Amino acid sequence: xxxxxxxxxxxxxxxxxxxxxxxxxxxxxxxxxxxxxxxxxxxxxxxxxxxxxxxxxxxxxxxxxxxxxxxxxxxxxxxxxxxxxxxxxxxxxxxxxxxxxxxx
Length: 104
Description:
alpha+beta; 3 helices
């Protein structure tokens, strides 16, 4: 059983179906795997992507930028869009954790 009751309930009922190609994304998904164990799997409304920087810790933002992922440009693009479509936003892989953020 997951450590977070919300995560356990979501896993019990399954994940949301993937969006059809060409249709707007319905969800922003964030997954954090630490030491091989999924620690975070969050589903938010797709429009939350505009405020993603507010929930990413500063140390993670710095690591994302250090990996030469154009985080600021991506956020400006997400903020300017009125409709979001399914896509990978970014992945950060370290020796002990992986962070995936995507729209579906």
